[in-house]
Write a structure and sequence with these properties.
The chain is mostly helical and 253 residues long. It is 42% helix and 8% strand. The radius of gyration is 17 Å and the shape is globular.
Length: 253
């Protein structure tokens, strides 16, 4: 995701090449599935307090993920080699972000777009998706908070390698993702996208309902497949946020 006045070099290769795009690939679903599955397995997903520590550990170590979301078809295009030298084409730009900064930007964007103060529950749900999409900010690029495809409102975009499902099976392609000049722009576009296309997800976020948030996104076609493991990870991360110090920076619901 997007926007640049300079052509940036490609981001360094990540330790994990796994990707979210309908399904986990790269190192293999066995590795990533084991990590995400650990969120659910120990002590039972909704089980005893002992499960909380394992959930937090597993969520903390989740690898970076890419591009789960789908923009309208007209906004998505696989890049061809001829795009390389186009002035409108940009390489993705590393924009790592601290978790506290991400929470602040998300809270401010919610207030700006929806004209209501963001509660700790709201920010916890939004922050959880951000953390999963960006490896807790370590692998964030172009200030894209949630792997949004297409072009930013100002036209900013970047080419990412990702995995897409086709009739012939999975294939690795370069697709266009939204890119932003500032974190404020990225956070606002993310919240505005939720407001316009996923009102039920916004309502779930208001309740602090991470599971309902992911289900609402799924019902409206946000994902290429039913994102069960993704949803479990977001739920775990939102619980972690609510138990942590960051939640105290926002008002109670």
């Amino acid at each position: 995701m997007h926007v640049r006045d300079v052509k940036w070099p490609a981001a360094p290769r990540r330790p994990s090449e796994s990707r979210w795009s309908g399904r986990l690939t790269g190192l293999g679903i066995g590795v990533v599935g084991g990590v995400v599955g650990g969120v659910v397995a120990l002590a039972g997903w909704l089980g005893e307090p002992a499960a909380h520590a394992s959930e937090a550990r597993a969520a903390r170590d989740l690898p970076a993920v890419e591009a789960v979301t789908e923009a309208p078809a007209a906004e998505i295009e696989a890049a061809s080699d001829s795009d390389e030298d186009s002035p409108a084409t940009w390489w993705k730009r590393p924009t790592p972000m601290d978790p506290a900064d991400a929470a602040r930007h998300l809270g401010n964007a919610w207030a700006d777009v929806l004209s209501e103060r963001a509660s700790a529950k709201v920010v916890g749900v939004l922050w959880a998706q951000w953390a999963l999409e960006t490896g807790r900010g370590r692998w964030m690029v172009d200030y894209n908070f949630a792997g949004l495809k297409g072009r930013a409102p100002d036209g900013g975009s970047a080419l990412w390698w990702t995995w897409e499902e086709t009739e012939e099976g999975s294939r690795r392609v370069r697709s266009r993702f939204r890119a932003y000049a500032t974190p404020e722009a990225g956070a606002r576009d993310y919240i505005d996208m939720l407001r316009r296309r996923y009102p039920e997800a916004v309502d779930a976020a208001r309740r602090g309902d991470a599971a309902g948030f992911i289900q609402a996104l799924d019902r409206r076609g946000y994902f290429t497949e039913a994102p069960k493991a993704y949803g479990r990870a977001v739920l775990s991360l939102s619980r972690e946020f609510m138990r942590g110090e960051l939640s105290s920076r926002f008002p109670d619901a």
